[in-house]
Write a structure and sequence with these properties.
By secondary structure, the protein is an alpha/beta fold. The protein has helices spanning 38-44, 80-95, 155-165, 181-184, 219-225, 240-249, 273-288; strands at residues 30-34, 49-56, 59-66, 69-75, 96-97, 102-103, 111-120, 130-138, 175-178, 192-198, 227-228, 231-237, 253-263, 268-269.
Length: 290
């Protein structure tokens, strides 16, 4: 089997994958990813035991135990570009031998669940509600840099959205990837479900305007009004499409659960951000460990 060259698989002198600084044994089969570095400790403080900690740049990892389940929590930072690093390197850590630089004969499939905050795009989804993302609709363009992503793309949803929004050719192709059926089945009662739109930025790409005018100032209205065979766009954030796309292509199970801290339609914002995030964490840890 051919080796992955040093320029493609960058390792530390100890054989750890460079950016996330991890070896296979550091990583549990169940991985929680969060954007905020501070949220790693917010989650791991609920563990009964922490086996491992490391950090490098914005990538902080704690692995430990909750209700008898070994869980890894890893911060990605904001954006699909960071998710590109994390998912590729998580896979490399568990599926490539660092000594031989070759793919392992037996591949591990991780359960990767993103816990995040988000803005709702449907009036009926309340602030502090929890949304499980059935699909990631990516405006970021990341998957367009990978071969064969169309094998996993939900073409009918992408095509319907392009037509509905009058998406212009100068914008990246809006790819659409499904969540893991196995994981989303764990999150039923008490969760809203729908498509999560992923933007490559917080301001213009999400229709916000300060001193710069957005090219699509009516973007949120177009997202809210989209409906494909009962599938609505429930919320807007900045990581899910890359997680679903890369994770699915690499053979991992992926899901995003977001707590709604703002309703973009009703112009409402949570009164207690910390409590909202605590509710998200406790609810999801219990579901993961069932």
């Amino acid at each position: 089997m051919s080796q992955f060259p040093e320029t493609e698989l960058i390792l530390t002198p100890e054989g750890r994958v460079y950016h996330i600084n991890l070896l296979a044994d550091d990583i549990a089969d169940d991985v929680i990813v969060v954007g905020d570095q501070g949220r790693v400790a917010q989650i791991s403080k609920l563990f009964t035991k922490i086996d491992f900690k490391t950090e490098h740049r914005e990538f902080i990892t704690h692995t430990g135990w909750f209700n008898g389940k070994r869980i890894t929590v890893l911060s990605t930072g904001i954006g699909t570009d960071n998710v590109d690093i994390v998912i590729n390197e998580l896979d490399a850590a568990v599926n490539i031998n660092p000594k031989t630089r070759t793919q392992n004969a037996t591949l591990r499939s991780l359960n990767i669940i993103r816990l995040g905050t988000s803005g709702a795009l449907q009036a009926e989804i309340p602030v502090n509600g929890l949304v499980a993302s059935t699909h990631g609709l990516g405006f970021d363009g990341l998957l367009n840099f990978y071969d064969d992503f169309k094998k996993h793309n939900q073409d009918t949803i992408s095509d319907a959205f392009i037509k509905h929004s009058r998406w212009t050719n100068n914008l990246p192709y809006p790819y659409c990837i499904k969540a893991s059926d196995k994981l989303i089945a764990k999150f039923t009662d008490g969760f809203y479900k729908g498509i999560t739109a992923t933007a490559p930025g917080f301001y213009g790409p999400q229709g916000r305007q300060l001193r710069l005018k957005a090219a699509m100032p009516n973007l949120n209205e177009l997202l809210t009004s989209f409906n494909f065979e009962g599938n609505k766009i429930t919320n807007f954030e900045m990581e899910t499409s890359a997680l679903y796309g890369l994770g699915t292509m690499l053979g991992h199970n992926c899901l995003t659960i977001c707590v709604i801290i703002a309703n973009r339609v009703r112009k409402e914002f949570t009164k207690d951000y910390s409590k909202s995030v605590d509710t998200l964490i406790e609810n999801c840890l219990n579901k993961i460990s069932e």
